[in-house]
Amino acid sequence: MQAAAVTTPDVTRVARAPWRSPLAVVGLTIIAGWLVLAALAPWVAPSDPLAQDAAILQAPSGAHWFGTDELGRDVLSRVIHGARISLPLAFVLVAASTLIGSVVGAVAGFFGRWVDSVAMRLADLVFAFPGIILALAIAAALGPQLRNAVIAVVIVSWPGYARLVRSLVLAARTSQYVVSSRLLGASGLRTLFVDVRPNIAGPVLVMSALDIGNAVLLLSGLSFLGLGAQPPTPEWGAMVAAGSQNFDRWWVGLFPGLAILTVVLAFNFVGDTLRDVLDPRTARALRE
Question: Where are the alpha helices (DSSP H) in the chain?
Answer without folding.
Answer: 2-16, 22-39, 41-44, 75-111, 113-127, 131-142, 146-172, 176-183, 188-190, 197-224, 236-245, 250-278, 280-287
